[in-house]
Each structure stands twice: as structure tokens, then as C-alpha cells.
Inverse folding.
């Protein structure tokens, strides 16, 4: 089977490639890429990519699959289908399931489910619990889980409060060469809070989570990374102060990287004025000043990655008084488009840099065979075709995810993944013009 | 058509005026034994998920005067104690054909949720730390009766501003009507970014109430001590009690108000609570008339949801 992607704008940050050219996929691997690749008309399928971007399959390093234990919110099958529709070919699943992913058997379970024909054909890179049961006191059997296939360890959903435990975990992960994905929240400071502490929380009479709750832990984790040498990735940065800490830590030579999420780049606390629980997330939506400075940090490279923090919930869990609603929003199917709309089309990031944050950088941080179109670097072709100019309206009822809890519902967006390939084609969007495909056989 | 009364913040000045005018008319009518116009066979659900005697009785009285029938629920006897969600409770009450709901709930924004699932009319009788619109209307009616106007009045709200729905509703209402607001209290009980609430912030009592036309004290909730937000009741009393001495810096005819129930000897001394400046009992009485106005207003609405 030979597929030729013809005349597209190839954006491959792993090779600093931004050219109009062709990509040839043969027997499910990329064999040739570039502007000078000659196209012989002998392929099974030729896809005309004029006006489209051909990018490495996107990598979402922060996704909650909810299985096992909370299948009412999402399953591995539905989440991976949603991922494919969002342009992702690899997703990292967080360990705060029920039970938490703190042993090798559960990692096997995840990988088996992800490989099932019912799943979306997307690679799942599991992240193991940093501590047993996500309880924050004893370090998990990380070596056994590493052998089973975890790509990182994390206390996501249950931030390690005890600095001594975190310090030891970093020493151990450094030995195992395993990155830590750090959820940064001081629970004594954020205690009971449901939104950003500030003008709007004062107005609404909702308990606020101060920005210091995030920043104190970002600083601690940066310092511990510096002292232990452990590779630490700070998850979903939301405040300008946290960005500043990370900038300093990088300057001091810490092996620290970080991510932010689309919601922190275009939504503010102001939008919660009607108590809509779709806007409730942790860390909470902040202010326009934070957005402006996060954008700056994206542009100057302090923020390495854009991830979705896909956190689906069932409708009945969300349709409750605001303070009782769970934190988080579904994001796999809006992540790319919201980023293109608010970050790329606004000129903050070039198309190549956008793809770096959404694919190459996360793959590099987690050492995945992904995030590249270079022949031979990935055992299976992972390619996303993006129509950058497509204007569409996000309709949550058309999403694959079980989680309909998204603040982006109804939003006008520009740009969309129209075809996702992971080995073979795994998703074709309704907006994809089928006339682009020539089938030879 | 109906409308909702979920917050003061979303009301226009003219709507506040209408409500106060309506309340004054009801008061006059009742004081003169004028027969009430029948308001039809409507049934109002009083849904109180938090303990409240005074507000519930006040709404009951208001409904009685207007000839409405009342169906009363308390949290302990509702299905919520059996695990039913608030949404399902609201849908059930809608199915049971209640004509309106008066709801108090411990969650800020719960009145908005009620408006979403019950429809209307909804009267918010206190949602968490968000708003308590009819309390503010009753306070405003009391001020209006004594001062005849709001324009330029210096109003000091003293105590736990951060957690007070009464403070918020009053602040929105009085500032919309032209009063000058001053919030007084310790930093820990003040919003971090008070900038959005319409008023000046003071941590010193005397500076905050100097020259005041109205002082509103708020009830100090004892659980704030266990939160660690306050060092002790004694310290609060020494710093923020409105009493014979501290009242001297306010205007001679300064009104002393309190939404009750008051912690006598903490927020106020006997002189302030019972003396010539106190209008605390009048606030309670006026509560009934503004609740009559609120019920009338939501039923006779023009379809706009507020």
C-alpha cells in the first residue's frame, strides 16, 4: 500500500522543515519527505494536499482517559477516537484513574485496550502514578512500570504535597531516566477554592484559589529538579508568575520543561460570571495579563508544549451547583483548532512553531518515536493533515468524546485536522474534500 | 410571563426603584388595612436548604398577605438527603406544578442553576456567599424611609465582607442608587481584589465609619475562627465593634443596621443595637414588604429573565 500526500505545506519541526512538497507513505511508514521528492503516479492513493499542512501526528501529553473506573466519563475507545478526530496520533494518559495506574498490570491493561480494534488507532503512552495509590507517601514500583511501558511518572490529580517524598521521587526517577510530570498545586493554599482568587471570585461569592497555590509548587519543583538533576515537566502552567519561575529555572540549568493548555490562552475568569461549570478547571482560568504573558512565553520558548488536559465528565456530574462540579474540561477535539485560532492566526507562533508545541516537543520530552516525519525515525507513519483556513463552529454534540463539558461549544474556530494517519488512515473529517483523493487501483 | 430575581447586580436602577416603590405601596396598604388585590391561585415553593427562620417566615408572611399558597421544604426532609441532585429536585418541583420557587442554598450560583432547570419565576433567598437580593431591598427601604434618598449617602459595611452575600447585594444596590460605599474589616475577611466591588476598603474602623450616614454591621460567623481567618473574637471586637464610643465618629443621625441574627456584644454593643440610631427591627419588618414586592414583580414580569 502506497499513499502519496502531494503538494502540501510540510511542517516538520524535527527537521526544521517548512516547504511545499510531497510525502510518500509505503507499507504504513514514511519513506520520503520533501520538496524535491518526485511523485510517480504509481501509488494506491494520491491525496492532493494543496492548501493543507502536512504535519507529524500531533502528540497530546496530558489526557485523562478515565478508564479504568470512571467509564461514565470516558473510555479508552471513545477518547482515542476523539484524539484521532482532533489530529492526535499519540496521547499520554494520566494515572489518576480508579484504581490509579500504579502497577505494571494496569499499564498492560491500558496498552491492551488501546490496541483493540474498537479503539481509535491512536498510540497511548501511559504515565504511571508517582506514588502508590496516588497517595503521595510511598514511591510506586516505577521500574516495573517502566518495563511495562510507562513514559513518565506523575502525581497528576493529587499533587505531591510532601517535599521529602517529591525529592526522593526525583532522585529515583533520575536514576531510572524517567521524566516526572508535575501537577503543581499547594492544597493548603487552594483549599476549597473553585476559581481564580480575584475580582471575579469576590463578585460571585465563590472561594478563590490564589495564584500562589500554583506558583509555590512550581518553584519548589523547579528547585528540587535543579538539586536532583531529575527531568521535570511542569503541567498546565496558568500564571505569569509560574512562567517566570520556570524561565529562571531554565536559566539556572534545571532540566525543566512546561506546558500550557488552550483554555489558558483564550479564556479568562471573567467568563465565569454566569456560574457555568464548563469553565471550572484547575488551575483556574486567570486574567488577560496572564494570557498576554503566557503568549509571550510561548513565543520565546519558555513554554515548550501545548497540551489539552482533556478532562471529560458525564453531564450529570457537571449539572450541579458550581462549587460541587468537578474540575476540568474535555479538550481533545478543540485543542488544535483553538490553538490555531488564538495563537497561530494571531501571529504569536508561526505554523512551524505551533506544530513543534503540539507534536515534536512533547515527543522529545517523553522520548517517543513520534513528532517527526523523518523517514526511519518512527516505526509507523504518524501524519496529520490540517486545513488551516477552514472556518467552522465547534459543536459538542458532534464530538466523539463522552465528555461534553467544554466551554468552547459554539465557538467559531479557524483551522482543523481533516485527516489523521497512524499507519493507515484513522480519521477523515466530514469537511475533507474527497475529490482530493485519487485512487489508482 | 415571569421573570427571576436572582441577583441585584443584574438589575437596572429603574427596576430597583420599581421594587422599592412597590414595597412602599404594599406597606402602606397593609398599615391602612386596605384590602389586597387577589393574586390568583398560585402556589409558591419555599425551598430552604440552609436553616433560616427569619427569611423563611418573612417570605411566608409576604405570600400570605398576597393570598398565595405556600409549599415549604426543608433540607432535612427533602430528597437531597437521599442523594437526589439539586437538578432533579428542581425538575420534580416543576413537574409538581409549583408556580414559583423561593430558594436558599449554600452554593453560590445555585439560583442561576434553578433558573436553568426550573425556569421561573425564581426568587433567590440567599445563594452561598453570592447574593441575598431581598435582604438588600429591605435594607434599602429602611434607609429610604429614614433618609428619603440615597444620593451621596455614606454607607459603611463593617465585618466579614468576603463571605457575606448581604454585603454584596447591598453594595450593588446602594451604589447603583448613588450611595458612597465603604467596606470595613480585617484583610483576611476582605476580597483579595476588592476593586470590583463598588466601594472603598478600610481596615481601620474609625476611618471607615467617620461621617457615615449608615453603618451596616455584618454577622461574624464563628467558624471563621476555625478557618484561621481570625485570631480571636476578642480581637475582632476590640478592632471592629460598633458601640457607644466608636459611633461618635459617625453622623449624629447615623443609622445602625444589622441583617441578624446578631452576636450581641461582638459586632454591636447594647447601645448601638438598641439605642436611638438602631433600625434593626424596622429592617426585619420591611423585609416582608420587599418580599411581597419581589413575588409580585417576578409574577407580573415582562419575560425578561434577570
Amino acid at each position: 500500500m502506497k499513499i502519496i500526500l502531494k503538494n502540501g505545506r510540510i511542517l516538520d519541526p524535527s527537521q526544521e522543515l517548512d516547504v511545499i512538497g510531497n510525502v510518500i507513505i509505503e507499507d504504513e511508514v514514511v519513506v520520503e519527505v520533501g520538496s524535491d521528492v518526485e511523485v510517480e503516479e504509481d501509488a494506491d492513493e494520491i491525496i492532493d494536499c494543496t492548501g493543507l499542512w502536512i504535519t507529524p501526528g500531533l502528540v497530546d501529553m496530558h489526557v485523562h482517559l478515565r478508564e479504568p473506573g470512571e467509564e461514565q466519563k470516558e473510555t479508552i475507545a471513545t477518547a482515542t477516537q476523539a484524539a484521532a478526530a482532533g489530529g492526535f496520533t499519540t496521547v499520554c494518559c494520566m494515572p489518576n484513574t480508579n484504581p490509579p495506574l500504579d502497577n505494571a498490570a494496569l499499564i498492560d491493561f491500558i496498552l491492551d485496550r488501546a490496541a483493540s480494534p474498537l479503539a481509535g488507532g491512536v498510540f497511548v503512552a501511559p504515565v504511571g502514578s508517582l506514588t502508590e495509590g496516588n497517595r503521595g507517601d510511598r514511591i510506586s514500583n516505577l521500574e516495573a512500570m517502566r518495563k511495562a511501558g510507562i513514559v513518565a511518572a506523575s502525581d497528576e490529580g493529587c499533587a505531591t504535597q510532601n517535599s521529602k517524598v517529591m525529592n526522593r521521587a526525583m532522585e529515583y526517577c533520575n536514576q531510572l531516566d524517567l521524566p516526572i510530570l508535575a501537577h503543581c498545586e499547594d492544597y493548603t493554599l487552594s483549599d476549597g477554592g473553585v476559581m481564580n482568587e480575584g475580582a471575579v471570585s469576590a463578585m460571585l461569592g465563590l472561594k478563590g484559589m490564589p495564584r500562589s497555590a500554583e506558583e509555590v509548587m512550581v518553584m519548589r519543583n523547579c528547585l528540587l529538579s535543579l538539586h536532583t538533576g531529575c527531568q521535570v515537566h511542569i503541567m498546565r502552567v496558568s500564571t505569569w508568575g509560574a512562567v517566570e519561575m520556570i524561565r529562571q529555572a531554565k536559566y539556572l540549568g534545571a532540566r525543566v520543561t512546561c506546558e500550557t493548555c488552550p483554555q489558558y490562552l483564550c479564556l479568562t475568569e471573567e467568563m465565569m460570571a454566569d456560574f457555568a461549570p464548563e469553565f471550572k478547571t484547575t488551575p483556574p482560568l486567570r486574567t488577560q495579563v496572564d494570557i498576554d504573558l503566557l503568549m509571550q512565553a510561548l513565543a520565546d520558548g519558555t513554554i515548550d508544549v501545548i497540551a489539552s488536559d482533556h478532562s471529560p465528565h458525564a453531564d450529570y456530574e457537571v449539572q450541579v451547583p458550581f462549587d460541587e462540579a468537578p474540575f476540568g474540561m474535555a479538550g481533545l477535539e478543540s485543542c488544535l483548532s483553538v490553538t490555531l485560532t488564538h495563537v497561530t492566526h494571531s501571529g504569536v507562533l508561526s505554523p512551524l512553531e505551533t506544530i513543534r508545541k503540539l507534536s515534536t516537543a512533547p515527543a522529545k520530552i517523553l522520548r517517543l518515536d513520534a513528532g517527526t516525519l523523518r523517514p526511519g525515525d518512527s516505526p509507523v507513519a504518524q501524519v496529520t493533515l490540517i486545513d488551516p483556513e477552514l472556518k467552522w463552529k465547534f459543536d459538542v454534540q458532534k464530538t466523539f468524546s463522552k465528555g461534553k463539558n467544554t466551554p468552547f461549544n459554539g465557538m467559531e474556530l479557524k483551522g482543523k485536522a481533516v485527516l489523521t494517519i497512524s499507519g493507515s488512515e484513522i480519521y477523515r473529517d466530514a469537511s475533507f474534500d474527497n475529490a482530493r483523493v485519487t485512487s489508482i487501483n | 410571563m415571569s421573570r427571576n430575581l436572582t441577583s441585584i447586580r443584574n438589575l437596572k436602577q429603574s427596576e430597583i426603584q420599581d421594587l422599592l416603590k412597590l414595597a412602599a405601596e404594599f406597606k402602606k396598604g397593609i398599615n391602612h388595612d386596605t384590602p389586597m388585590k387577589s393574586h390568583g391561585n398560585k402556589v409558591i415553593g419555599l425551598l430552604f436548604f440552609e436553616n433560616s427562620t427569619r427569611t423563611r417566615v418573612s417570605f411566608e408572611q409576604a405570600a400570605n398577605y398576597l393570598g398565595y399558597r405556600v409549599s415549604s421544604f426543608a433540607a432535612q426532609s427533602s430528597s437531597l438527603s437521599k442523594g437526589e441532585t439539586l437538578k432533579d429536585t428542581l425538575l420534580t418541583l416543576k413537574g409538581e406544578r409549583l408556580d414559583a420557587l423561593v430558594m436558599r442554598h449554600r452554593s453560590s450560583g445555585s439560583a442561576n442553576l434553578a433558573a436553568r432547570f426550573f425556569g421561573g419565576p425564581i426568587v433567590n433567598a440567599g445563594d452561598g456567599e453570592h447574593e441575598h437580593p431581598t435582604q438588600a431591598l429591605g435594607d434599602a427601604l429602611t434607609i429610604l424611609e429614614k433618609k428619603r434618598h440615597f444620593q451621596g449617602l455614606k454607607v459603611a459595611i463593617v465585618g466579614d465582607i468576603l463571605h457575606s452575600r448581604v454585603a454584596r447585594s447591598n453594595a450593588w444596590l446602594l451604589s447603583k442608587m448613588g450611595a458612597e460605599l465603604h467596606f470595613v474589616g480585617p484583610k483576611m475577611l476582605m476580597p483579595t481584589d476588592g476593586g470590583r466591588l463598588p466601594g472603598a476598603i478600610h481596615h481601620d474602623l474609625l476611618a471607615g465609619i467617620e461621617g457615615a450616614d449608615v453603618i451596616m454591621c455584618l454577622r461574624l460567623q464563628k467558624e471563621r475562627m476555625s478557618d484561621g481567618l481570625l485570631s480571636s473574637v476578642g480581637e475582632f471586637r476590640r478592632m471592629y465593634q460598633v458601640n457607644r464610643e466608636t459611633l461618635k465618629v459617625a453622623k449624629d443621625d447615623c443609622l445602625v443596621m444589622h441583617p441578624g441574627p446578631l452576636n450581641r456584644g461582638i459586632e454591636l454593643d447594647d447601645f448601638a443595637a438598641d439605642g436611638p440610631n438602631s433600625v434593626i427591627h424596622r429592617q426585619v419588618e420591611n423585609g416582608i414588604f420587599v418580599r411581597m414586592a419581589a413575588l409580585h414583580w417576578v409574577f407580573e414580569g415582562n419575560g425578561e429573565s434577570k
